[in-house]
């Protein structure tokens, strides 16, 4: 039943979630300790004593013998659930997090327990007490209340939207059997909801041909029963529902009957498991006869015993009793909610599970917790340190007051009875300095994130014109998480692929034939210009070569670095392909980037048809004729003729559909199919058409165990013909020459393994960056370098030269362009070690008439090599075989097969055993190659994300072979990858795991682990296996999990989060089966694709194409991470800077708590005068251009390694604020304070000078010196803020009334100190000192980094002033160096118009 489970705090939780993961950082240790010692024990106590003891909500015990459901439509009473003691759950579902009753308590408890809110509540409450605060009574509590209420209202609206979505689904209508005269649930009240929600269904749905209000016209009429339309939420366990074609299944049901032959119904389960194949479900034979109409349903005496609800999608156990005779009920007879009826006129079923007890709902992630940004963890650490600082500072100045009181206050007659108690003075100082942790941080942060959300949604580069959809942010709280992702867990169907199958080629007689024309723009795109890091300028005319470098006349050695073109093998002379063993399967190395091309040596199917017409009796023509007939006959599809005469097909799998469409293109059209015959319309090259009827004798259907299907037909000439298609492993051993085929297959495999070993050795010699990948760019530098752009170098290649003074080691920058070398006609160059015929050495006629076509050994060698070529390019391959059966032999076999087909015991096993008796001695017809078309730009995106130190995993419900093929095609599997397949059905699972762990730990360049859902459940059930498996998570590059249920997908995400607390996960999918995974990850991305918007609606972010993920992460993710991190640091810096002057003023003020700043100015400080300088960079800052970030994905590790916000950086900014605050205070105190000659010796003049210096320097530093991307918005913000402050001074000077307070504001700025040159001179002097020191420091740091002297610990390791060169990876180069390259124009791109996206591994996106 899926993953192993134990009783948890809230129901069932996976066993492995109870272990302890590694603790990689202080924050992780704190979080782990908190969860283990505080959170989990508290939740356990809450569950045991409140939920179970008080609310009486205990975990449900298992039933004695399952749930008993009688087939009785006349019963109007609800059935009783023996586990609960009352009726079964209704069929409504709820995905919202709150109810009307618990929303406010839960929200206020959540808000009050957030660290910053708790802190401000502790400050705001005593501040409201009169006499304690010197900064006002309500300046904290009122803004805090407003902020909390705003957050609560936002959460309420989000949950209201979820309630509306639930109501839409619960209000859909279904056809249910009801007694006449019973209470009718009319649909008039549901009509509006149904129409509004039609496009919001949680699974794909074709347009229905009837409206919900339409009266059902049924041929089946009964006096006591009727078919009634009711809303889904009114369906109960025991109801009989009727589905029509393209109807969604409203609950888990057992099939009673269906309109298909022998009670077969075709079901689409894409929303459940992601599989595109239609599954055939068959009603039990006894029920099919008894439940064909209402009268028979009313009269039958039957009951179903069903297992208790569980979340296992791949198993079901039950039984049905008819007239005291029990029949097993298995997965083949049950249809789950979330499925859709396809290609079947109608089906009738009995409801087994409803609502939250349906399989799809039990696999859902119920009421997921709100996601938090990763930066909040570090911000909380900062807040904790500042709380400690504020407390210590308040204690210190309070002690200062006690000393001042003892030394001065007691002797001052005018201060008699003015003594303040210690507890009051310390509370006053706590209130005074509380703004060191500003509430404005959280208010402004919401504004910043709204601005970031608008910026990211307005990016036209993530707009898909074909679907007319743009990027959508469903939440703005975790935007910075996009810049810290370490793991991407992706669905396959509809996410990586387009769910469109195309027949791309076939192998017949050892010759490969391509099918379909490659668009001209694809060929142009294959040779389009690359984009790389290049330079623009010219070198001096006098040059001489010195030691591999060019010495120019100016005495500098210039090392020119050009774009290096690598072959598809990254340096290997041949392309590795192959079909190795399953246990440790190597990744093939076909580099067909973009649209798949089968082979450079292949002929086209058009040439084949021409040759067949000219030479109809040639061996290749006969083989091709039989192969094309097999494509048109060996299937279970049905043809449909449209009103315009066109023929379409209804197939159980997209592969069959692609084969039939290809057969139609080649002149073999299926026009009619019944249970007895298949009719083909064969069109010759001259246009003549002939009908051929093949009598269907038997169909042995495909199963995952057999991996093949067969059909027995009687040909028009009377011969009995057996056709079989399936996986190469299933067909090869059943050939007449099976031993020869096996030997040739092993020869091909060994050849491919040898080629691959050469590639691996070559790749092992290449340089690696700091996280093990090949670098986009590496710098070899000495201790000094002069970066200058230069012109085109010899040969017309654009290049970048970094010059250093003579005698120094050089700087070499290399960029790798993984473009495939091409021949002059634009075809790819493929070299192999086997003899495969090609047009370069033979004419078409000679090759097609070669005697090798009838030589089995040659055909096997060539065919198996071509199959490997197909598989290497991610194409799905099938082998076709055939044989003719003598009539007597067929009659003998038919009797045994008939007995097996009608057996009531072990029917499927007996059918498979009977099939083994006839499926042998085949002749090989050939192989087909079908492309599961990838979305545009998928391989390029995955390669760039991998270079950004992001690991990509693929979690799919599809079968293993399909998943591995797509992994090759999408480049999840690399040419040097070693693939380890874990299969509990094959051998000892522990031995497999240990062997894989040993191989991975001893050193694999790129390891890929493949596991299926059943094996994963066994791993989770065993403690030692679980420990070994999850210990491999940090070591493997990728994991492919196939046949995974939605719950297992979510469990894998949670496993990564638990085992690697410092890693950030991103889940991406497009179907309802991906929702649990998306909600469990740190970041959820939904694809708004052809399958609907079910995942896009619940995800955090929605994009229309997978390729947009690279821009979302590499560009916007980094920008938003840096913006938010800088915003947090800048906010804390400015508060520390402002209040440092206040802290220093306490000494001259006798530690009495007198504020240096005037109250009204202090109140509007963070609102009017220091808000734009943090908000504007927080929304618009771009430290590097998008082109640079896409060209060098390694720069993404900046966020992964928390370089934007960490304790050392925070400490440096606080130290800077302290030093600069001291400079401002002492300059102001010396220039316009004690001992200075001034026109105004009041406190306001000094305080206003410090305040003005604070505002001016804050805006200069944050908007001018720290902001890299300076736009008009930045300039306007600076002018408005600084100019607004002086306007505020003039306004206050005029409107302030005369009073006796220390702040003599009236006329001060306009008449007294505002006209004093000393005041202005002090202002200018302090600003000049701050600016010179800051600019000087930045210049020195850039020089030190350029010289290789920074960071100091690395420079010391190399030897200060040393002349040794060292390699610096792109991710280790300081951002300032990259910014310098951008300013010098050294980072550019050349781009030619391309019809498709080619492989731009080191290119820049426009």
Automatic annotation (TrEMBL):
<feature type="binding site">
    <location>
        <position position="493"/>
    </location>
    <ligand>
        <name>ATP</name>
    </ligand>
</feature>
<feature type="binding site">
    <location>
        <position position="493"/>
    </location>
    <ligand>
        <name>Mg(2+)</name>
    </ligand>
</feature>
<feature type="region of interest" description="Disordered">
    <location>
        <begin position="1386"/>
        <end position="1406"/>
    </location>
</feature>
<dbReference type="InterPro" id="IPR023299">
    <property type="entry name" value="ATPase_P-typ_cyto_dom_N"/>
</dbReference>
<keyword id="KW-1133">Transmembrane helix</keyword>
<feature type="transmembrane region" description="Helical">
    <location>
        <begin position="1210"/>
        <end position="1232"/>
    </location>
</feature>
<dbReference type="InterPro" id="IPR059000">
    <property type="entry name" value="ATPase_P-type_domA"/>
</dbReference>
<feature type="binding site">
    <location>
        <position position="491"/>
    </location>
    <ligand>
        <name>Mg(2+)</name>
    </ligand>
</feature>
<feature type="domain" description="P-type ATPase A">
    <location>
        <begin position="224"/>
        <end position="296"/>
    </location>
</feature>
<feature type="binding site">
    <location>
        <position position="1049"/>
    </location>
    <ligand>
        <name>ATP</name>
    </ligand>
</feature>
<dbReference type="InterPro" id="IPR023298">
    <property type="entry name" value="ATPase_P-typ_TM_dom_sf"/>
</dbReference>
<keyword id="KW-0547">Nucleotide-binding</keyword>
<feature type="binding site">
    <location>
        <position position="957"/>
    </location>
    <ligand>
        <name>ATP</name>
    </ligand>
</feature>
<keyword id="KW-0472">Membrane</keyword>
<dbReference type="GO" id="GO:0016887">
    <property type="term" value="F:ATP hydrolysis activity"/>
</dbReference>
<dbReference type="InterPro" id="IPR023214">
    <property type="entry name" value="HAD_sf"/>
</dbReference>
<dbReference type="Pfam" id="PF16212">
    <property type="entry name" value="PhoLip_ATPase_C"/>
</dbReference>
<feature type="transmembrane region" description="Helical">
    <location>
        <begin position="1317"/>
        <end position="1337"/>
    </location>
</feature>
<keyword id="KW-0479">Metal-binding</keyword>
<feature type="binding site">
    <location>
        <position position="725"/>
    </location>
    <ligand>
        <name>ATP</name>
    </ligand>
</feature>
<dbReference type="InterPro" id="IPR032630">
    <property type="entry name" value="P_typ_ATPase_c"/>
</dbReference>
<feature type="region of interest" description="Disordered">
    <location>
        <begin position="823"/>
        <end position="847"/>
    </location>
</feature>
<feature type="domain" description="P-type ATPase N-terminal">
    <location>
        <begin position="83"/>
        <end position="141"/>
    </location>
</feature>
<feature type="binding site">
    <location>
        <position position="876"/>
    </location>
    <ligand>
        <name>ATP</name>
    </ligand>
</feature>
<feature type="binding site">
    <location>
        <position position="958"/>
    </location>
    <ligand>
        <name>ATP</name>
    </ligand>
</feature>
<dbReference type="InterPro" id="IPR032631">
    <property type="entry name" value="P-type_ATPase_N"/>
</dbReference>
<feature type="transmembrane region" description="Helical">
    <location>
        <begin position="382"/>
        <end position="405"/>
    </location>
</feature>
<dbReference type="InterPro" id="IPR008250">
    <property type="entry name" value="ATPase_P-typ_transduc_dom_A_sf"/>
</dbReference>
<feature type="binding site">
    <location>
        <position position="702"/>
    </location>
    <ligand>
        <name>ATP</name>
    </ligand>
</feature>
<keyword id="KW-0812">Transmembrane</keyword>
<dbReference type="InterPro" id="IPR006539">
    <property type="entry name" value="P-type_ATPase_IV"/>
</dbReference>
<dbReference type="GO" id="GO:0140326">
    <property type="term" value="F:ATPase-coupled intramembrane lipid transporter activity"/>
</dbReference>
<dbReference type="GO" id="GO:0005886">
    <property type="term" value="C:plasma membrane"/>
</dbReference>
<dbReference type="GO" id="GO:0005524">
    <property type="term" value="F:ATP binding"/>
</dbReference>
<dbReference type="Pfam" id="PF00702">
    <property type="entry name" value="Hydrolase"/>
</dbReference>
<feature type="binding site">
    <location>
        <position position="1073"/>
    </location>
    <ligand>
        <name>ATP</name>
    </ligand>
</feature>
<feature type="domain" description="P-type ATPase C-terminal">
    <location>
        <begin position="1096"/>
        <end position="1341"/>
    </location>
</feature>
<keyword id="KW-0067">ATP-binding</keyword>
<protein>
    <recommendedName>
        <fullName>Phospholipid-transporting ATPase</fullName>
        <ecNumber>7.6.2.1</ecNumber>
    </recommendedName>
</protein>
<dbReference type="GO" id="GO:0032456">
    <property type="term" value="P:endocytic recycling"/>
</dbReference>
<dbReference type="Pfam" id="PF13246">
    <property type="entry name" value="Cation_ATPase"/>
</dbReference>
<feature type="binding site">
    <location>
        <position position="956"/>
    </location>
    <ligand>
        <name>ATP</name>
    </ligand>
</feature>
């Amino acid at each position: 039943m899926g993953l192993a489970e134990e009783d948890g705090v809230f129901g069932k939780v996976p066993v492995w979630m109870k272990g302890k993961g590694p603790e990689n950082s202080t924050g992780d240790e704190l979080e782990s300790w908190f969860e283990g010692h505080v959170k989990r024990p508290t939740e356990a106590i809450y569950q045991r004593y409140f939920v179970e003891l008080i609310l009486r909500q205990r975990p449900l015990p298992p039933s004695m013998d399952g749930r008993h459901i009688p087939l009785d439509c006349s019963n109007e009473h609800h059935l009783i659930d023996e586990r609960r003691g009352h009726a079964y759950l209704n069929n409504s579902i709820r995905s919202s997090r709150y109810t009307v009753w618990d929303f406010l308590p839960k929200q206020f408890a959540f808000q009050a327990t957030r660290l910053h809110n708790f802190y401000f509540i502790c400050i705001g409450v005593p501040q409201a007490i009169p006499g304690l605060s010197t900064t006002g009574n309500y300046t904290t509590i009122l803004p805090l209340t407003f902020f909390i209420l705003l957050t609560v209202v936002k959460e309420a609206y989000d949950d209201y939207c979820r309630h509306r979505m639930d109501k839409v689904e619960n209000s859909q209508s279904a056809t249910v059997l009801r007694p006449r005269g019973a209470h009718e649930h009319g649909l008039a009240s549901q009509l509006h909801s149904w129409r509004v929600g039609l496009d919001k269904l949680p699974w794909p749905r074709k347009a229905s041909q009837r409206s919900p209000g339409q009266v059902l016209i049924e041929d089946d009429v009964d006096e006591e029963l009727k078919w009634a339309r009711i809303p889904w939420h009114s369906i109960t366990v025991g109801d009989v529902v009727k589905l029509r074609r393209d109807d969604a299944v409203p609950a888990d049901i057992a099939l009673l009957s269906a309109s298909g032959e022998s009670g077969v119904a075709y079901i689409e389960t894409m929303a459940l498991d992601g599989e595109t194949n239609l599954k055939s479900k068959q009603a039990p034979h006894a029920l099919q006869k008894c439940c064909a109409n209402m009268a028979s349903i009313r009269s039958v005496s039957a009951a179903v015993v069903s297992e208790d609800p569980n979340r296992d999608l791949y198993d079901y156990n039950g039984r049905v009793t008819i007239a005291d005779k029990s029949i097993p009920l298995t997965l083949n007879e049950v249809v789950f909610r979330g499925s859709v009826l396809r290609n079947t006129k109608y089906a009738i079923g009995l409801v087994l599970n409803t609502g939250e007890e349906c399989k799809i709902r039990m696999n859902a992630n119920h009421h997921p917790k709100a996601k938090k940004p990763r930066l909040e963890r570090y911000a909380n650490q900062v807040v904790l340190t500042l709380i400690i600082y504020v407390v210590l500072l308040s204690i210190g100045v309070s002690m200062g007051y006690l000393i001042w009181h003892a030394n001065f206050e007691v002797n001052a007659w005018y201060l008699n009875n003015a003594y303040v108690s210690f507890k009051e003075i310390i509370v006053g100082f706590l209130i005074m300095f509380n703004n060191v942790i500003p509430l404005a941080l959280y208010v402004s942060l919401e504004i910043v994130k709204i601005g970031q959300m608008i910026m990211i949604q307005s990016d036209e580069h993530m707009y898909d014109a074909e679907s007319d959809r743009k990027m959508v942010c469903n939440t703005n709280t975790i935007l910075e998480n996009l810049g810290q992702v370490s793991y991407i867990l992706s669905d396959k169907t509809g996410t990586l692929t387009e769910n469109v199958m195309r027949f791309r080629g076939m192998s017949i007689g050892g010759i490969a034939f391509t099918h379909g024309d490659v668009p001209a723009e694809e060929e142009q795109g294959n040779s389009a210009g690359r984009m790389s890091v290049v330079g623009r300028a010219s070198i001096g005319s006098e040059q001489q070569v010195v030691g591999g470098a060019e010495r120019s006349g100016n005495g500098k050695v210039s090392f020119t670095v050009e774009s290096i073109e690598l072959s598809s093998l990254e340096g290997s002379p041949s392309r590795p392909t192959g079909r190795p063993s399953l246990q440790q399967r190597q990744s093939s190395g076909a580099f067909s980037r973009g649209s798949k091309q089968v082979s450079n040596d292949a002929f086209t199917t058009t040439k084949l048809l021409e040759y067949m017409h000219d030479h109809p009796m040639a061996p290749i023509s006969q083989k091709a004729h039989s192969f094309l007939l097999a494509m048109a006959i060996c299937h279970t599809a049905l043809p449909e003729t449209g009103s315009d005469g066109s023929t379409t097909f209804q197939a159980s799998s997209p592969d069959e559909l692609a084969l039939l469409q290809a057969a139609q293109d080649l002149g073999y059209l299926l026009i009619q199919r019944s249970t007895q015959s298949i009719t083909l319309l064969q069109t010759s090259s001259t246009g003549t058409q002939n009908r051929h009827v093949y009598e269907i004798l038997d169909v042995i259907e495909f199963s995952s165990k057999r991996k093949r299907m067969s059909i027995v037909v009687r040909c028009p000439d009377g011969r009995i013909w057996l056709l079989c298609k399936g996986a190469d492993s299933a067909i090869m051993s059943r050939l007449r020459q099976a031993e020869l085929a096996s030997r040739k297959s092993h020869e091909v495999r060994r050849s491919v393994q040898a080629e691959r070993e050469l590639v691996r050795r070559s790749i092992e010699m290449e340089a690696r960056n700091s996280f093990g990948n090949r670098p986009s760019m590496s710098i070899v530098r000495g201790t000094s370098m002069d970066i200058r752009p230069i012109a085109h170098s010899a040969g017309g290649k654009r290049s970048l030269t970094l010059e250093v003074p003579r005698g120094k080691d050089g700087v070499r920058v290399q960029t790798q362009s993984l473009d495939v070398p091409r021949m002059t006609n634009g075809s790819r160059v493929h070299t192999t070690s086997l003899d495969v015929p090609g047009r370069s050495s033979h004419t078409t006629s000679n090759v097609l008439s070669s005697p090798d076509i009838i030589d089995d050994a040659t055909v096997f060698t060539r065919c198996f090599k071509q199959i490997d070529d197909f598989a290497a390019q991610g194409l799905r391959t099938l082998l076709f075989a055939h044989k003719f059966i003598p009539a007597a032999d067929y009659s003998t076999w038919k009797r045994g097969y008939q007995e097996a087909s009608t057996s009531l015991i072990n029917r499927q096993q007996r059918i498979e055993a009977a099939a083994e008796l006839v499926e042998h001695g085949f002749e090989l017809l050939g192989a087909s190659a079908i492309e599961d078309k990838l979305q545009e730009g998928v391989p390029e995106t995955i390669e760039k994300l991998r270079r950004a130190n992001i690991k990509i995993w693929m979690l799919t419900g599809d079968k293993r072979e399909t998943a591995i093929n797509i992994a090759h095609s999408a480049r999840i599997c690399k040419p040097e990858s070693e693939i380890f397949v874990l299969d509990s059905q094959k051998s000892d699972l522990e031995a497999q795991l240990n062997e894989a762990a040993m191989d991975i730990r001893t050193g694999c360049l790129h390891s890929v682990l493949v596991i299926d859902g059943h094996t994963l459940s066994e791993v989770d059930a065993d403690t030692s296996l679980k420990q070994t498996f999850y210990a491999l998570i940090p070591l493997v590059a990728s994991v492919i999990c196939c046949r995974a249920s939605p719950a297992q997908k979510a469990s894998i995400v949670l496993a990564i989060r638990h085992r690697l607390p410092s890693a950030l996960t991103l889940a991406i999918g497009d179907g309802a089966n991906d929702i649990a995974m998306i909600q469990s990850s740190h970041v959820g991305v939904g694809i708004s694709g052809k399958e609907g918007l079910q995942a896009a609606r619940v995800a955090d972010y929605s994009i229309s194409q997978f390729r947009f993920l690279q821009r979302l992460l590499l560009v916007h993710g980094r920008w938003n991470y840096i913006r938010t991190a800088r915003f947090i640091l800048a906010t804390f810096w400015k508060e520390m800077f402002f209040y440092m002057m206040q802290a220093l003023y306490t000494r001259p003020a006798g530690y009495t708590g007198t504020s240096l700043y005037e109250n009204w100015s202090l109140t509007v400080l963070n609102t009017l005068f220091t808000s734009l300088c943090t908000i504007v960079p927080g929304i618009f800052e771009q430290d590097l251009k998008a082109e640079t970030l896409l060209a060098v994905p390694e720069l993404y590790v900046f966020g992964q390694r928390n370089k934007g916000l960490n304790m050392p950086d925070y400490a440096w900014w606080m130290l800077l604020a302290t030093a600069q605050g001291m400079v401002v205070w002492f300059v102001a105190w010396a220039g316009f304070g004690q001992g200075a000659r001034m026109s105004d010796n009041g406190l306001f003049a000094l305080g206003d000078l410090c305040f003005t210096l604070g505002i001016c320097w804050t805006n200069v530093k944050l908007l001018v010196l720290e902001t890299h991307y300076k736009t008009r918005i930045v300039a306007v913000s600076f002018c408005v803020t600084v100019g607004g402050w002086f306007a505020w001074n003039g306004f206050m000077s005029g409107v302030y009334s005369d009073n006796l307070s220390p702040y003599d504001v009236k006329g001060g700025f306009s008449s007294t100190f505002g006209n004093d040159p000393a005041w202005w001179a002090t202002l200018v002097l302090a600003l000049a000192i701050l600016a010179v020191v800051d600019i000087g420091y930045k210049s020195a740091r850039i020089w030190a980094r350029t010289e290789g002297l920074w960071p100091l610990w690395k420079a010391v390791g190399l030897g200060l002033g040393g002349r040794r060169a060292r390699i610096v990876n792109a991710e280790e180069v300081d951002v300032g160096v990259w910014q310098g390259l951008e300013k010098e124009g050294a980072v550019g791109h050349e781009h030619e118009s391309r019809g498709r996206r080619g492989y731009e591994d080191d290119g820049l996106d426009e």
